[in-house]
Amino acid sequence: MNYDDDLEDRLAAEYQNRQRQTGDLDYIRRYYGLERRHGIRVAIGGRIRSSGQEGQIVDTSGHYLMVQFDGDEQPVRRHVTSNMEYATAAGWVAATPVPDPYAAAPAGAAQ
After folding, report:
1. How many domains is the chain partitioned into structurally?
2. How many other CB atoms sit within 10 Å of the CB of residue 3?
């Protein structure tokens, strides 16, 4: 294997990684609708806060985010809405789960 082959392999792997991330982020954006509902644009490099700890989105893992918390050596997997706040131009915004259309109405609520 020569240098050109190694470079081609690395470029191909990087391309596949970006394709995977793009697909994961597209799904996350469509399913959770955070941009539409809260003005949050989920992206690699975005700043987040979870349980008071700040970090940066460094990757995706299926429908989850890989977050590198400030001061930590390894990224961790985090759910998109579970205790997550995102940095936006307007400040920190909490992400909320997608409303469950099948959830029972609260007692006493008009139907």
Report:
1. 1
2. 7
Helices (H), the chain: 3-32, 34-38
For residues 68 and 30, give the distance between their C-alpha atoms in angstroms, rounded to a whole number: 24
The boundaries of the domain holding residue 33 are 3-94
CATH number for position 20: 2.30.30.30
Could you tell me which residue, 107 or 30, shows the higher pLDDT? 30
What's the token pair of residue 27?
């799904």
**∠103-109-111 over CA atoms, to 5°?**
75
Residues facing residue 77 across a β-bridge = 66
What is the pTM (predicted TM-score) of this model?
0.83
Q: Measured between alpha carbons, how far is 18 from 12 in angstroms, rounded to an integer? A: 10
pLDDT of residue 56: 98
